[in-house]
Amino acid sequence: MPAEAPIYDRVALIGLGLIAGSMSLAMRRGRLAGEIVGTARSAETRDIAREIGLVDRVVDTAAEAVVDADLVVLAVPVGAMAAVAEEIAPHLKPGATVTDVGSVKRAVIDAVGPHIPEGVHFIPAHPLAGTEHSGPRSGFATLFDNRWCLIVPVEGSDRDAVARLEAMWQGLGAHTDEMDADHHDLVLAVTSHTPHLIAYTMVGVADDLRRVTDSEVIKYSAAGFRDFTRIAASDPTMWRDVFLTNKDATLEILGRFTEELFALQRAIRTGDGEQLFDYFTHTRAIRRGIIEAGQDTDAPDFGRVKPE
Amino acid sequence: MPAEAPIYDRVALIGLGLIAGSMSLAMRRGRLAGEIVGTARSAETRDIAREIGLVDRVVDTAAEAVVDADLVVLAVPVGAMAAVAEEIAPHLKPGATVTDVGSVKRAVIDAVGPHIPEGVHFIPAHPLAGTEHSGPRSGFATLFDNRWCLIVPVEGSDRDAVARLEAMWQGLGAHTDEMDADHHDLVLAVTSHTPHLIAYTMVGVADDLRRVTDSEVIKYSAAGFRDFTRIAASDPTMWRDVFLTNKDATLEILGRFTEELFALQRAIRTGDGEQLFDYFTHTRAIRRGIIEAGQDTDAPDFGRVKPE
Ligand SMILES: NC(=O)c1ccc[n+]([C@@H]2O[C@H](COP(=O)([O-])OP(=O)(O)OC[C@H]3O[C@@H](n4cnc5c(N)ncnc54)[C@H](OP(=O)(O)O)[C@@H]3O)[C@@H](O)[C@H]2O)c1
Ligand SMILES: NC(=O)c1ccc[n+]([C@@H]2O[C@H](COP(=O)([O-])OP(=O)(O)OC[C@H]3O[C@@H](n4cnc5c(N)ncnc54)[C@H](OP(=O)(O)O)[C@@H]3O)[C@@H](O)[C@H]2O)c1
C-alpha cells in the first residue's frame, strides 16, 4: 500500500536494532518517509548501519538525529528510554511526533512523558512482532506485515497526530488498535511476558539437569521444547527491562500461574486423574473457541516471523 | 524408501487414532505390510475407519485383530494398555512382535510385559511426533518423516526382532534410536511432558483472568501464547495418562522448574536486573550451542507437524 506522498518528511530512528531496522526497510518499501535518519549508541552499530545502508543517513548522536524530524521513534530497550528522551528534548521540532516501540507502556510513559516539550506530540506504540534476533543486521521489511501494532495515546493526545501515526503503522504492514497503557501491560503480561519467563526457566532447568544432555533435549524435543529454546535466545537486555518495568502485571500473572500449577502438581502427586482430565478438557474448549472465532491460523510460529 | 518385500506380512493396529492412522497410511506409502488389520474401542471409530478405508480390514475386537498378526501395535492411551494386553495375550501368534507407541515407557512395560506369552517379542517404542488432533480422521502419511522414534528394548529382547521393528519405523520415515525406559521417561519429562503441563496451565490462567478477554489474548499474542493454546488442545485422556504414569519424572522436573521460577520471580520483585540479565544470557548461550551443533532447524513448529 504505497502512499501517494510520504506520511512524514523526515523520520529519526533512535536505536538501530531489529525493530528500527525493520521499520526503515518497511518505510522504504512503502515510500512512507522522505528521509530516514538513524543513530545508535555504539560506533560499531552505526558503522554497520552505514555499511549496509540501513537508513538514508547515520548520525552520531540522538540529539543530532531528531533535528527537523517530523517523527522520532525511540527504538531502544525500555530502560534506556528516559535518558534518550532527556537528550533529545531540547532539539525536537515543534509539531513533531515522538513515539516509541517499547514492549511495556506505562513505564515508558512515566519515563519519557515528562521530558516531552509543549507543542510536541507524544504517542506511545508497540508493534507485536519480533524474532529472537537483534542488532542492526536483524531487520527485514516484512516483519510487521499482518501483525498488530497497539497505539497507546496518552491524556490529551492530538487526534490528527494519532491518525497519522496509525497510517504510518498501516503503511508498515500492520493492523492497528488503540489501547490504554495499563490494559496493554496486563494483556502483554499474559500473552508474552509471562510465557517468555516460563520458557527461559524451562530452558534453564533442562540445562541444569546433568542426567539429560542438552543434545538429547533438543534432538528428542518432538513437542514443546524447541520453541522454548528459541524464545530463551531473545535479547537479555530487552527482557530484563521488560520484567523490571512491567513488574506488577508480570508478578500478578506469575502468582496465578504458580497457584494453578500447584493444583495440577498436587493432582499428579495424588493421582487425581479426574481433575487433570477436567482441566485439560477445559483448556481444549478454550482453543476450540479461538478457532471458531477465526482468531488463529494454522501456523505454529510462537508468534515469530521468518524473513521471507 | 519402499521395501522390496513387506517387512511384516500382517500388522494389527489396536486403536485407530492419530498415531495408528498415520502408521497405516505411512505403511501403505512404503508398502511395509502385507495386510493391515485394525480395531478400535468404539463402533463409531470402527465405522469411520471402514468408511475412509483407513486400514485394509476393520474388525470388532482386539482379540480378533491380532490373530495371525506378525506385528501388533498398541496405539491406545497409556492407561488402557494393560487391559488390551490382557485381552490379546491368548490370541498372539508365536514369534510375533508386540510393540506400543505410548508416550511413557516404564509404566507401559510394567503394565504390558507380564501379559506377553513366552515366544512373543515385546519391544516398546515411542514415535516423537504428533499434532493436537486425535481420532480416526486425524492421521496422515508424513507424520513420522524425519522425526525420531525411540525404541526401548526390554531385558532379553531378541535382536533380530528389534532390528525388524527399527526397519519398520525407518520405513515409516523416522530416524530410530534405542534408549533405556527410565532415561526415556526423564528425557520426555523435560522435553515434552512438563512443557505441556506448563502450557495447559498458562492457558487456564489466561482464561481465568476476566479482565483480559480470550479474544484479546489470541489477537495480541505476538509471541508465546498461541502455541500454548495449540498444545492445550491436545487430547485430555492421553495427557491425563501421561502425567499419571510418568509421575515421578514429571514431579521432579516440575520441582526444579518452580524452584528456578521462584528465583526469577524474586529477582523481578526485588528489581535485581543483574540476576535476570545473567540468567537470560546463560539460556541464550544454550540456544547458541544447540544451533552450532546443528540440532535445530529454523522451523518454529513446537514439535508439531502439519499435514502436507
Ligand atoms: N525484539 C522484539 O521481539 C521486540 C518486539 C516489540 C518491541 N520491542 C521493543 O523494541 C525496542 C528495541 O528492541 P530491538 O529488538 O530492536 O532491540 P535490539 O535489536 O537489541 O536494538 C536495540 C537498539 O538500542 C540501542 N541501545 C541499547 N541500549 C541502549 C542504551 N542504554 N542507550 C541507548 N541506546 C541503547 C542499541 O544500540 P547498540 O546496537 O549500539 O548497542 C540498538 O541499536 C525495545 O524497547 C523492545 O522492548 C522488541
Ligand atoms: N498424539 C500424540 O501427540 C502422540 C505422540 C506420540 C505417542 N502418542 C501415544 O500414542 C497413543 C495413541 O495416541 P493417539 O494420539 O493416536 O490417540 P487418539 O487419536 O485419541 O486415538 C486413541 C485410540 O485409542 C482408543 N482408546 C481410547 N481409550 C481406550 C480404552 N480405554 N481402551 C481401548 N481403546 C481405547 C480410541 O478408541 P475410540 O476412538 O474408539 O475411542 C482410539 O482409537 C497414546 O498412548 C499416546 O501416548 C501420542
TrEMBL record, chains A, B:
Keyword Iron-sulfur: no
Pathway assignment: Amino-acid biosynthesis; L-tyrosine biosynthesis; (4-hydroxyphenyl)pyruvate from prephenate (NAD(+) route): step 1/1
GO molecular function: NAD+ binding; prephenate dehydrogenase (NAD+) activity; prephenate dehydrogenase (NADP+) activity
Keyword terms, alphabetized: Amino-acid biosynthesis, Aromatic amino acid biosynthesis, NAD, Oxidoreductase, Tyrosine biosynthesis
Reactions catalysed according to its record: prephenate + NAD(+) = 3-(4-hydroxyphenyl)pyruvate + CO2 + NADH
Domain Prephenate/arogenate dehydrogenase: 9-298
Enzyme Commission code: 1.3.1.12
Top enzyme category: oxidoreductase
One GO BP annotation of this record: tyrosine biosynthetic process
InterPro entries per the UniProt record, alphabetical: 6-PGluconate_DH-like_C_sf, NAD(P)-bd_dom_sf, PDH_C, PDH_N, Preph/Arog_dehydrog, Prephen_DH
Protein family: Belongs to the prephenate/arogenate dehydrogenase family.
Family matches, as NCBIfam families: PRK07502.1 (NF005694)
Name of the molecule in the record: prephenate dehydrogenase
Species the sequence originates in: Maritimibacter harenae
Higher taxonomy: Bacteria, Pseudomonadati, Pseudomonadota, Alphaproteobacteria, Rhodobacterales
